[in-house]
Each structure stands twice: as structure tokens, then as C-alpha cells.
Amino acid sequence: MKYIKGFFVLIWRIWMILLATIYVLTIGIFIVLPLANFDKTFPYIYPFIRYWGKFVLYGTGFRIDYEKLVPLDPKENYIFIANHTSVMDIMLVLTVLKHHPIAFVGKAELVKIPIFGKIYKRICIPVDRTSARSKAQVYPEAIKKLNQNLSIFIFPEGGVSNEKEFKIYLDPFKDGAFNIAIETKTPLAVFSIHGLNKMFPFNWFRGYPGKIKIRLLKTFDTKDLDVKQDKVALKEAAFNTILKDLEQCKN
User: What global pTM score does this model have?
Assistant: First the structure.
């Protein structure tokens, strides 16, 4: 029975990849990729990027339970952060952030994926976390995106641990999101994502469709903050905000 279930889960996950590929090979190549060459056109292509996330998320059998504990200003740009538990996190946040076009800070390795990598490089900020030079480029690229009236989305843990499939767990946060938020005086908005560590883990033979809970927990004003004096406190506050919510919602 275990192996039969694993087989069907594998087919389901291959179906997700097929959905993502179909969208990239049609909308991605013929609309997103050409228009992504021009900075001024990003607000027009963001709906296509966002619907890619919705297409994959809903097409794979997921639904969303989105709760806002605080409002977002539709005219404001934000540095968004969340805990990172699954590749489906990206589809999820694209789906819920309708009024705030976002550029992700993500793994540079994704640039190597045929076709998708070209789109990814133009609409995201790739970073190689093993390279000091690559990490140093994130800040000026983030400034550029913010000046284009975009928000930035960063998973501050810098990756996903397989341990998250089995327990509530947060890796220590990297500094990048908090440096950018304070130095650019951009408010920080904090999400928590629940359930995807078990529903769509990094295991080809585990997982199941269902309703994903995502909560907008808090925003932090950074206008009066200083990087040297306040970064550590801001990072700890954001970390504890997410961890507390994950623990409370589990109980």
C-alpha cells in the first residue's frame, strides 16, 4: 500500500511540473520573456507571472486560507519575508499578492534551467549565497527594483531544510532582507506559511493536495531605524513573530 501511494504521489508531482512547463512554454516565451527586457513593462507582465503561480497552485489541487492580521497599503512597496518550507511557497505568495508586484531574491542555480532560467533572470534577483560578490550585488539590484515601483520578496532562511517536513523549524535568518529594508527605508511585511512542509515537501513520494494557511502577521516601519543599531533587533522580532505564529497555529 505504501508503494502504491508513493506511485500516485509521484504522478501528481509530475503533473505539477507539467503544468508549470506548459505555462512557461506558452505565456512565458511569447509574452513574459519579450516584455521582461524593458523595466517599464514589468507591471504589465506581473499579472501573467502571478497567474502562472495560480495556474500551478490550483491546478495541483491546492486551495488557500489567507488571513490578514494587518492591512497593506496598496500604494506602498514592501520587503516581504516568510518562512520557506516548499517549492510551492513561491506559487502561494504570487497568488495572494495581487496588488504588490514582487521580484523574488532567489537561488542563482535556477538560471541554468532551460528557457525558464532566462525568464527567471530577468524578473528576479538571482543570488549565489556561496559568493560574496553575488551577495553584494543583491542590494543594488533591489534598489533598482524598488525604484521601478516593485516590492521585494525574500525567504530569509536562505533555503529549505528537509527537517521541516516533520516539525516546526526555522533556520536562522540571513541579514539581507533586513539590511535592504532599513537602508532603503522600506517597510518590512511578515508572512507565515502553514502546512506546505507536509503537503508538498522536497520528497518525490510524499505529499497531498489540500488547503494552505498563509497569514500576514505584521509590518515593521523602518524609516527611523539604523542598520548597525537596529538590524539585529528587527531580525529577531521578525523571526519570533513567525515562530510564535507557527507554534500557536499548531496547537
Answer: 0.93
